[in-house]
Write a structure and sequence with these properties.
Layout: H1 4-8, E1 13-19, H2 23-33, E2 38-42, E3 46-47, E4 56-59, H3 62-70, E5 78-83, E6 89-91, H4 95-105, E7 109-113, E8 122-123, E9 138-144, E10 157-158, H5 160-167, H6 177-185, E11 198-199, E12 202-204, H7 209-225, E13 232-235, E14 244-248
Length: 250
């Protein structure tokens, strides 16, 4: 059985998720599967870390985070963020602080939520998004298979005007597999600000045969449009014991 961390080759370095449709779920699954000491954090607002994760939690102001994380039990994984006035939420740490903590903290990997999508299934970034950590090793663009075949609307998409611009699909028109592939492959879409990082896309919520067929078509379209990645991982993170549905290579 292929694990998600093996499929994405996300065992080390700074790993950032971007996009929509399961960024946190991907990160939590990677943290569960990793055999070593890891850190979980975010550069943007995020929900409270799940209690079932076997990690120590550190919440503090950005200026204090490094000292507090480095003072944590060196045998334990750590989830850290800044406080937020919003109930049930944490604020993101600055990208520079995350870089510094990773370099000093002895973590095998740091898993970072680096984008927001307001619970939508697909998004395209504004000019200042995503908020990646400097020198990130791996960027994982995420989108939901549930968006494929749906009309482009605010119900399914965040930054709908940007999605329309990148995909060529007007609001109200169906998000075809080819259009979704174009979003994954675009330097103004899922690849924005990825720089020299290795890119490992995920299509999540592939929970039936119809969704798998659509996701495979979108993955093949994306691979044909770019040289930045040569495979796309299809997964169903509602099934954490067996999350990988397929790895599409073209």
């Amino acid at each position: 059985m292929t694990t998600l961390i093996d499929a994405l080759q996300a065992h080390e370095g700074i790993v950032c998720t971007v996009g929509a449709g399961g960024k946190k779920s991907v990160l939590y699954q990677l943290a569960r599967e990793h055999p070593g000491r890891v850190a979980l954090t975010a550069t943007v607002h995020t929900t409270e870390f799940p209690a079932e994760l076997d990690v120590d939690t550190v919440i503090g102001e950005d200026r204090d985070l490094q000292a507090r994380v480095l003072a944590a039990d060196p045998a334990r994984s750590v989830a850290y963020a800044c406080p937020s006035s919003k109930p049930g939420r944490h604020a993101g740490a600055s990208p520079g602080t995350i870089r510094s903590i990773h370099d000093a903290g002895g973590f095998a990997a740091t898993f970072v939520k680096a984008d927001g999508a307001r619970m939508r299934w697909i998004k395209a970034p504004e000019a200042d998004e995503p908020m990646l950590v400097p020198g990130a090793d791996t960027v994982i663009p995420v989108l939901s298979a549930r968006a494929i075949g749906e009309p482009l609307s605010e119900r399914v998409a965040h930054r709908i005007d940007r999605v329309a611009e990148v995909t060529g699909i007007a609001p109200g028109e169906l998000l075809t597999p080819e259009a979704v592939g174009r979003l994954l492959a675009s330097e103004h879409g899922a690849l924005q600000h990825a720089g020299r990082a290795r890119v490992a896309p995920v299509i999540n919520m592939v929970d039936n045969e119809i969704k798998e067929e659509l996701a495979r078509a979108a993955a093949r379209a994306a691979i044909a449009m770019t040289s930045r990645f040569d495979c796309v991982v299809l997964c169903c993170l509602r099934r954490p014991e067996r999350p990988v549905v397929a790895v599409v290579t073209g």
